[in-house]
Amino acid sequence: MPRLELIAALLATRLCTEAKYALQLNCKEYYWTDSSIVLAWIRRGIGLNVFVHNRVKEITDRSHVDDWHHVPGELNPADLPSRGCNAENLFKSRWWEGPDWLKKSQELWPYCEVPPDESEVNKEIKKTCLTIQEVYRFTDRFLYFGKYSKIVRTVAWCLRFNKYDCNRQNKKDITAEEYEKAENRLLCLIQRETYGDIDEVKTRLKLDIFKDSKNIIRVKTRLTLSGDTENFVTPMLLPGTNSIVKRLVHQSHVLGLHTGTQTLINILREEYWIVGIRKLAKTVVRECIICKRHNVKACTVPLAPLPADRVTCGVPFEVTGVDLAGPLYLKSGDKCWIVVFTCATYRALHLELCSSLSTEEFLLSLRRFIARRGRPRIIYSDNGTNFRGTNNILSTVNWDDVSSKISIQKISWHFIPPQAPWWGGWWERMVRTIKEILRRVLGKAALLEKELFTVLCETEAVINSRPLTYIVDSTENFKALTPAMFLKVGNTSTFDLNQVKSPNLTTRYSYIEKINTDLQQRFRSEYLSLLVQKNTKNENNLQPGDIVLIGSDDLKRVNWPLGLILEICLGVDNVGRVARVKTAKGERVRALQRLFPLELSRLESIQFPQSSGSNDKVADPTLEPDNLLTKTTRSGRPVKLPRRLNL
Fold first, then answer.
1. What is the sign, positive or negative, of the torsion defined by CA atoms of 60, 63, 66, 71?
2. Is residue 420 within 8 Å of residue 591, measured between CB atoms?
3. Quick one: pLDDT band at residue 623, thresholds 50, 70, 90?
4. How many CA atoms does the CB half-sphere of 119 hold within 13 Å?
5. Bridge partners, residue 289, by sequence
6. Cα–Cα distance measured from residue 236 to residue 274, given in angstroms and rounded to the nearest whole number
7. How far apart are CA 341 and CA 381, in angstroms?
8. What CA–CA distance (Å, rounded) separates 606 from 602?
9. Which among 390, 405, 454, 521 is least surrounded, fewest beta carbons within 10 Å?
């Protein structure tokens, strides 16, 4: 039906052309059709089938596309004779006079747009068939094996099968002579598939090449008179783009004890002249998993902005970082540890002494700290077992019952990522300062517990008296800011005392309030303004699904476990610095600086079994022979991945 409507439109343009020519008319044309499909073909007119395309082309040649309009079927006078009617109805309709709306002004004509049925329109779209012919080579059959020696041994078995009677059983292993013949036959096949005409190869590669008695293409060098071996003087010509040659290069890399690029090239040059050898050798060395495990570098991320807890002026030790330093040896031979409490804002220090690393001992030191310095609102720490135990104990407290009896605030405990001590650098720096002082003061001396605690109190006083900013020669602020200044301030709220009627008291308290305000202002302008953001490159391209090594200071690199990134945790600045990683022993949370990317994306079939070992054959030459699985990276480059991850 749409094709019939198209033919009717074509007849209309032909009729109009003939009428204008016969009557010698020069006027604007208007064409009306009730087929939205025909209108779509005329207006688009691209990529149509031959039947529709030819008629649409003639219509557009005889008329302009903008002259075509849509008319509803009930207003189309051509529908009356096409649908059929008797003479009486035809006379009543006065069909030969045209539609009634045509006699009205042009603004009242039935201009309307009806969306066409795209399925009907697309039926006449020209179908294009793209045929891709893949060049198949005989040597591609051997890509099933991932190891070059296995390919050569397979060729050797095929040659033995061809030599002997198929019914004869010969179970002896491949000999060295058979291996050499099979390798020559394999390399000859590769040369035949890659280099057809030897004269063309000479012109293209600009090499002096010839075929030896075994029909192998070799390269003539200037070492012909050196008296060296045939393979060194006239090496075999091989293409660097062939996958089997890549397996050969990888085998040489493994047999050469995972040597570097230049040494690998020298080893291959003893027997082969590989076109593009340097690029191929670099690729093999770069994609070697064993080399990557030992050479890959950790991720780097930009420094995070300081949290609000560290740059908001408040009560000293309201936000506290805690850590343990030691052990120290007493005169009695017992060990003890220093509990370091650091104020996040004013960098003040409080030291306690404990006799063990148990949770009970730390709880006692925390009680002493709260009694002397006040109750902290937030505590930061690493993931020590005593800190975790204290947090677990505090989480069991019924705070509804506590809040009904006394108005105290629950302590919020924050832990930094495991094995990421730089996240707690603001208290680790205090630990270093304490150790430097104790080394100089104590030397090799062994003290009693009371004597050591006295030394710690004096050390605390010295560190709290250190200047926080650069001391300048000025008569206005001749005294530098120190943490000890803020420890003596305490709560500065004097609203009720300001209501006292005595003018002397009001003036005195107003003066003290002004001193405290000026001190806070000096802290903001002289100290906080110096905390600038250092410019650090963001070299992190890790994504969920990547395979990484999980670095550890307690293990050698060869023993670092493999992990699969499950999630990258973003900070307030939308930069990821922590990741959840899945290993064979469960999930772990690690800082990105502890993750060493292997540039492998996740396969859906990857599992994390407890056992290892597999004899599956693979199709990638860059891995260990029998425990690997091929895959591709996000960029589409084929790489390797252990079929069973030995975690």
1. negative
2. yes
3. very low
4. 0
5. none
6. 8
7. 10
8. 7
9. 405
Q: How far apart are CA 630 and CA 640, in angstroms?
A: 5
Residues 590, 418: Cα–Cα separation, whole Å: 6
| Residue 320 burial (CB count, 10 A) | 28
What are 550-606's pLDDT values in tens digits?
888 778 888 888 888 888 888 777 778 888 888 888 888 888 888 888 876 544 333
What residues does 562 pair with on adjacent strands? 549
Q: Give per-residue pLDDT as tens, 400-454.
A: 777 777 777 788 888 888 888 888 888 888 888 888 888 887 777 778 888 888 8
Peptide bond into 305 cis (omega under 30): no
The band of 478, judged by pLDDT with boundaries at 50, 70 and 90, is low
Joined tokens for residue 140: 């591609």
Query: HSE (CB half, 13 Å, CA atoms) of 109?
Result: 13
Cite the beta strand spans of 165-241 per DSSP E: 209-211, 217-219, 236-239
Residues 6+ apart with CB under 8 A from 636: none
Tokens of 58: 């003639």
DSSP reduced 3-state for 33: strand
130 against 551, higher pLDDT: 551
| Structure letter (DSSP) for residue 558 | G
Give 378's strand partners: 319, 412
Specify the 3-state DSSP secondary structure of 566.
Answer: strand
- Residues 6 or more apart whose Cβ sits within 8 Å of residue 136: none
In this prediction the pTM is 0.52
Give the closest residue to 17 by CA, choosing from 53, 51, 67, 54.
67
pLDDT average, residue stretch 240-262:
90
Kindly state the DSSP code that residue 237 receives in the 8-state scheme: E
> CB neighbours of 68 closer than 8 A, spacing ≥ 6?
9, 31, 32, 33, 39, 42, 43
Contact of 645 with 608, CB cutoff 8 Å = yes
For position 535, what pLDDT does the model report? 54
Structure tokens at 148: 């070059």
- 438 contacts 455 by C-beta, under 8 angstroms: yes
The rounded mean pLDDT for the chain is 76
In angstroms, the CA 406 to CA 60 distance is 90
Give the torsion through C-alpha atoms of 62, 67, 71, 77, to 10 deg: -50
Q: Which of 371-380, 450-459, 495-504 has the lowest mean pLDDT?
A: 495-504
What is the enclosing helix (H) or strand (E) of 547?
strand 547-550
Which structure tokens are listed for 416? 């930094």
Helix (H, G, I), strand (E, B) or coil at 521: helix
With tokens 């300001």, the residue in question is 498
DSSP string, 435-502: HHHHHHHHTT----HHHHHHHHHHHHHHHHTS-SS-----SSS-S---HHHHHTT-----TTGGG-S-
